[in-house]
Amino acid sequence: MLNFNTPITDTKEYSEIKLSEIEPIFKINLRGKNRDFITKIGKELSIITPVDPNTSSSNEKLNLLWLSPDEWFLYSNDKLDIKDANSLEDKLFNEISKVKLGSVTNVSDHWIMINLKGTKIFELLSAGCPFNFNNFKKSKGAVTQTLLNHIDIIIHNKNINDLNLFVRRSFSSHLWSWMNDSARFI
């Protein structure tokens, strides 16, 4: 991972909304199409690979999000030390990319993860997002890719009123400012 430098330096709490950037965690983009690829991911990570649209699977250390019929996003629950992160990436690369089953790309430095907690987080998101959250907020493990204030994001519904939002590093400062400004009025 690169030297981590983020414009988001604090946690913000508003009436029934808490926003915080999570320290750099391990993130990998996985792409592949055939059944052997899907089986290999599950076996290497000890996770059942989600094959239904907008779903996820997890274990105590990792989360695997379905992004498209041939794309998944893997991220850790906690900060991994660099040795463990490199070991996992090498293991996936050797078992998938090297044998031409698919691709393994480390995107840890590309995405910022912001955790949103509270009973009004969906009101905040709805203020700048075209996505209808009615079913999403009731579905633990649901995943969506959408726009928030004209910025591409990935949202993972970890639990009731507990979301992880992924935004590209280059847009993180702008989105963070918008969420803080909007949260004040909700």
Give a brief rundown of this model.
With 186 residues, the protein is an alpha+beta fold.
CATH class of the largest domain: Alpha Beta
How many domains make up the 3D coordinates? 2
Query: Strand portion, in percent?
Result: 25-35%
Amino-to-carboxy terminus distance = 36 Å
Biggest β-sheet: strands ordered side by side in the sheet: 1-2-8-11-10-9
Please state the overall shape, judged from the principal axes of the Cα atoms: globular
CATH superfamily of the largest domain: Probable tRNA modification gtpase trme, domain 1
Mean pLDDT over the residues: 92
- Provide the low-confidence segments as ranges: none
Q: What structural class do helix, strand and pairing data support?
A: alpha+beta
Tell me what the CATH architecture of the largest domain is.
2-Layer Sandwich
Largest sheet: 6 strands, antiparallel
Total helical segments: 4
The CATH topology of the largest domain: Gyrase A, domain 2
Order of helices and strands: EEEHEEEHEEHEEEH
Characterise this structure.
The protein has 186 residues and is α+β, with helices and mostly antiparallel strands. It has 2 domains: 10-25 and 110-186, Gyrase A, domain 2; 26-107, Heterotetrameric sarcosine oxidase (Alpha-Beta Plaits). The chain contains 4 helices and 11 strands. The chain has helices at 35-45, 82-97, 121-126, 169-183, and strands at 11-14, 17-21, 27-31, 56-58, 62-68, 71-76, 103-106, 111-117, 143-148, 151-159, 162-168. The strands form 2 sheets. The protein has a 6-stranded antiparallel β-sheet with strand order 1-2-8-11-10-9. Strand 1 and strand 2 (17-21) form a beta hairpin. Helix 1 runs antiparallel to helix 2. The radius of gyration is 16 Å and the shape is globular. The N and C termini lie far apart (36 Å). The model has no long low-confidence stretch (mean pLDDT 92).
